[in-house]
Amino acid sequence: MVSTYRNGKSDVWVANLQSRNQIIPRGICIGQAEPLNEGHLCVISDTSGGLDDQQKTLESQMNCSLMMSPELSEKQRNKLSELLRKFSGLFTKTEKLTAAKTNGKHKIYTGDHAPINQRAYRVSPT
């Protein structure tokens, strides 16, 4: 795993692949960070396989103008268009609205403290 390390902290995503609950106690060490040795990097130079041609076709069909603010300069529009086409695989290709599924089960272990029961409310962004 490669992660960004700033100010002595790094974000680490952990997945529980077991069928039983796992509790990670506060302060437990779940990994070790080491500097990346560039000698361990490998580059794949063979790009044959045909996927690039399909990707370029999809990228050229993508209408980026719908995602751009009319306030952008021509140079900014070109840069943004290039960026959106480069990462077009991140966007949905269907016209259907895709709503986030919120039916996942989870528990928050609060130790000896009572659970917090409070109605949700909106908070001003300022």
UniProtKB/TrEMBL annotation:
Single GO BP term: proteolysis
Domain of life per record: Eukaryota
GO molecular function, one term: aspartic-type endopeptidase activity
Protein name (record): Transposon Ty3-I Gag-Pol polyprotein
Taxonomic classification: Eukaryota, Metazoa, Ecdysozoa, Arthropoda, Chelicerata
InterPro entries attached to this UniProt entry: Spumavirus_A9
Peptidase A9 domain: residues covered: 63-125
Gene expressing this chain: TY3B-I_835
Organism expressing this protein natively: Trichonephila inaurata madagascariensis
